[in-house]
């Protein structure tokens, strides 16, 4: 069985309508339960719950401290390539956008890695567009081999791969996988992805599971909030994380909550997610899945990110460039989207400490021959 069966189980269900019917008393009852089921999770995403954010925040804060302490993991993305064969209408790297295309060679990768390592960061997320003939699994694996001396933890946020490709990346030193479904709404997904291999909804939906099966230490899922009704996509995101947690207990499961950002292209999101709505999703998710990692990226402005720290966030990006070659300052290329928090790593660390939390650069060690096989 795959998560597709869970999604299919809700076919025809009016999820936004069910959320509208929730009362304040339903929310209070849900908040008193020690363990929440899917119905209670949807209750916390409802309009009625929007009036009880303070009570939700107190429970979310307590659960976060209980399971993660007062710590925030830091990482930064490294864009290897912006070549792409897809036409996702919401993305600046869309194959139809007339932007300069570039791809780092081994020297460029090394320069980017050295520039990032100088900031002290130890966790790196490697990104490419979706052009497997150019930026292939072999290319990404070779990049990981080049970078693994600097970075004990390497993640990938690339095209959906086959299980043996994920296994190859693991052998090259990659230990985590981030892959967003963008939207769980199948018909909307087809409209937003008019051409290219990413059109295959099911292959993408099952990719995080293939990563778990291949042995990834951490698998991070999410939806691009704003593409569809946010309650529906937030609901399925939480359900996807819960499905993976239950089926693959050896894998750490995390969720990202990215909102649509301006980019090189004219697409406007269908539903805008305000700050209060983002906070509600974060709180509901933390209460539903107390042990789930939650990532907030530099898509969000500094002030908001700082306020979210005690509410359930466990990972933040810092010192970010979304352009290929952007860290070593050797690029003319356009970024994938505009970031909102341009602070340096040290500035983000200071902000975390001011909130009484500890910035964590590294909390794991790759053991050759056990997790990441020596190459
Ligand atoms: S979201 Fe990814 S696959 Fe889609 S156009 Fe952008 S880079 Fe390509």
UniProtKB/TrEMBL annotation:
Give the Gene Ontology MF terms in alphabetical order: 4 iron, 4 sulfur cluster binding; catalytic activity; iron ion binding
Which NCBIfam families would you find in this protein's record?
A: thiH
Q: Which organism is it from?
A: Desulfovibrio psychrotolerans
Q: Which UniProt keywords apply?
A: 4Fe-4S, Iron, Iron-sulfur, Metal-binding, S-adenosyl-L-methionine
Protein name listed in UniProt:
Radical SAM core domain-containing protein
Family matches, as Pfam families: BATS, Radical_SAM
Q: Which domain of life is it from?
A: Bacteria
Q: Where is the Radical SAM core domain?
A: 70-299
Q: List, in alphabetical order, the GO biological process terms annotated in this UniProt record.
A: thiamine biosynthetic process
Cross-referenced SMART domains: BATS (SM00876)
Q: Which InterPro entries match?
A: Aldolase_TIM (IPR013785), BATS_dom (IPR010722), rSAM (IPR007197), rSAM_sf (IPR058240), ThiH (IPR012726), ThiH/NoCL/HydG-like (IPR034428)
Q: Which cofactor does it need?
A: [4Fe-4S] cluster
């Amino acid at each position: 069985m795959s998560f597709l069966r869970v999604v299919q189980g809700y076919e025809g269900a009016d999820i936004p309508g069910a959320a509208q019917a929730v009362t304040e008393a339903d929310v209070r009852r849900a908040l008193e339960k020690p363990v929440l089921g899917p119905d209670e999770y949807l209750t916390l995403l409802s309009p009625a719950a929007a009036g009880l954010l303070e009570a939700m925040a107190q429970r979310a804060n307590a659960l976060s401290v209980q399971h993660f302490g007062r710590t925030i993991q830091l990482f930064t993305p490294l864009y290897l390539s912006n070549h792409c064969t897809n036409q996702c209408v919401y993305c600046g790297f869309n194959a139809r956008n007339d932007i300069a295309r570039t791809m780092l060679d081994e020297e460029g990768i090394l320069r980017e890695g050295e520039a990032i390592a100088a900031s002290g960061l130890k966790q790196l997320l490697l990104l490419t567009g979706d052009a497997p003939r150019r930026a292939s699994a072999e290319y990404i694996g070779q990049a990981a081999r080049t970078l693994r001396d600097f970075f004990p933890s390497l993640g990938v946020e690339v095209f959906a791969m086959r299980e043996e490709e994920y296994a190859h990346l693991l052998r090259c030193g990659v230990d985590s996988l981030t892959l967003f479904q963008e939207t769980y709404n199948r018909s909307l997904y087809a409209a937003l992805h008019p051409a290219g291999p990413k059109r295959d909804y099911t292959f993408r939906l099952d990719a995080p599971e293939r990563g778990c099966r291949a042995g990834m230490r951490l698998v991070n899922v999410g939806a691009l909030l704003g593409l569809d009704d946010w309650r529906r996509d937030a609901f399925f995101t939480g359900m996807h994380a819960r499905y993976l947690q239950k089926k693959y207990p050896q894998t750490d499961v995390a969720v990202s909550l990215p909102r649509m950002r301006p980019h090189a292209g004219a697409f406007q999101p269908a539903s805008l997610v305000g700050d209060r709505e983002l906070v509600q999703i974060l709180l509901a998710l933390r209460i539903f899945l107390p042990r789930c990692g939650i990532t907030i990226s530099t898509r969000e402005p500094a002030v908001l990110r700082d306020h979210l720290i005690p509410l359930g966030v466990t990972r933040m990006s810092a010192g970010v460039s979304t352009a290929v070659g952007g860290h070593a300052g050797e690029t003319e290329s356009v970024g994938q989207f505009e970031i909102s928090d341009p602070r340096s790593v040290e500035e983000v660390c200071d902000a975390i400490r001011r909130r009484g939390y500890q910035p964590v650069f590294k909390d794991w060690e790759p053991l050759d021959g056990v997790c990441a096989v020596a190459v």
